[in-house]
Amino acid sequence: MDLFEKLKVEQGPLGQFSNMPKDYFMFPKLEGEIAPRMKFNGKEVLTWSLNNYLGLANHPEVRKADADAAAEWGLAYPMGARMMSGNSVHHIELEEQLADFVKKESVMLLNYGYQGVLSIIDALVDRKDVIVYDAESHACIIDGLRLHIGKRFVYPHNNIPSFEKQLERAKRITDETGGGILVITEGVFGMSGNQGNLKDIIKLKEKYNFRLFVDDAHGFGTLGKTGAGTGEEQGVQDDIDLYFSTFAKSMASIGAFVGGNEKIITYLRYNLRSQIYAKTLPMPLVIGALKRLELLKTKPELKENLWTVVRALQSGLKKHGFDIGTTKSCVTPVLFHGGIGEGGNMTVDLRENYGIFCSMVVYPVVPKDVIMLRLIPTAAHTLDDVKETIDAFASVKTKMDEGVYKREEIMAITK
Q: Does the reported pTM lie above 0.85?
């Protein structure tokens, strides 16, 4: 059989939307300056789908730093992988500042968050080791687990009794193999908005002698007194053995980092294949990250503005009877019961007739009978934006309750 003959796009979980109008649900095009209001299909929309938590993407100081660095250095410098010829004083400076900020002995820069997490997992464990992880872990973690040739045990999301049972299983195996246990969870889970139950996980560290790796992509910059993340928020940052975050959320850029004690970070520098065999971060991204980190540290009003919007949006939605799950972060899921077609109609209605752009999340990320509309508040949004959005959601909820979206064809909805 020809390999390509069996590859059908509609077989994948997202491929069910491949017959929809191009660039509508999958790969939509938002145009204009990055801001709460952009253009979609030629119409202005109020967008809640950008992970620009602190509003830094178009901050004037950030734009200037990016532009000046690009003019001075270009996008090529430094050439080569970091280990061979791609290092610089600014790469080292950024690592040192990040380490100080997240209270870790050492930090290693990563080109991308996804490949970084995958490669960290691969570098840490061998066939004798066991990984225990949360069931709602991000895809980058799951793909890292697929590289592991030893045992791996999953526990239901934030379920500590089940987590301990998996630790017991893991310990029985490692007692025989002489291996170790790696626990992986997230600081903030990007779909539900729940915080990982770090405190209760850490209470079991001494008993089961495991190491803890936390992916805090959505917590860094948004949680904690200084913005240092979920570990700071919960008062357990010192007990996280490896702390990871990406620049793609609060920092509104490209790249990532992992922090821990100097010995393990040095080990990763010499063993992380995704960094050893890949070009280093270009200088403008490094200089830009330094400016973003400076603003994160010196302008607490950015995080304060963000949380003003978050509280208004989440409390307003709950007041109007919406189910936003158990989020304990900026991530704001709005949950409905219905089929994919029904959710598609509702999403189209919001975009076309109310000017509200948010992402629809469907099975397998959520159960088959659930539709999630995920909203990402930012410091750039206003309370007027919040009111407009809640009014629109209230209107479409009435329509959904009346079964309007079951009767209409997608892309044919009008007021």
A: yes
